[in-house]
Design brief:
Keywords: Cell membrane, Membrane, Transmembrane, Transmembrane helix, Transport. The chain is built from 9 helices and no strands. By secondary structure, the chain is an all-alpha fold.
Length: about 220
Amino acid sequence: MDFAGAYSAENLKFLLDGLYVTLIVAFAAIVLSFVFGCIIGVIRYMKIPVLSPIMLVVVDLIRNLPLLLIIFFMRFALPEIGIKMDLMTASIVGLTIFEAAMIAEIVRGGLTSIDRGQVEAARSSGLGAVQTLWHIVLPQGLRRMVPPLVSQFISLLKDTSLAVVISLPELMHNAGIIIGHGYTYTIPTLLLVALIYFIVNFLLSQLSRRFEARRV
């Protein structure tokens, strides 16, 4: 094991470059999947005619597909019909589609967990369906969603490593290149990558616990 060689300034910079790409992709996918997931989750919760059944089919379809297949589809299948994306865009779109389906179920579950009596009381007091959702259900539901949402975001960040299959220069991709320079770099490099993932995900989990403590 060559720790000195694996942790040379050049290699460390290369890994940090990969981490930067990982964080950019993860951040973009987190924001987009949260937005679309919330929209889909609300549509399913409100049982909007036509739209809700369609969203149910879409969510179930995506949730039962491997994320790797979706990433491959974004990068290699869409260009066949004239839709071309660069590596980063294909990764973000693939992750967003997959994670939005997961988040939609978290959102729907969080909203349906609110006591039905509160909804009925709000409606009987003259609030409309949208007003009840916005003022009564959503604020309480979002607080309950924080822990599962953060857990899903942690999974998303780790799932960015799957983009290595389309050669996105993220953390695992760059780690693989360093390992390819010498087998003695394998253990030191993987240990460092594991530490990096642990630190980032640990910070996210601590953030979740802080929100949970404030909610209680």
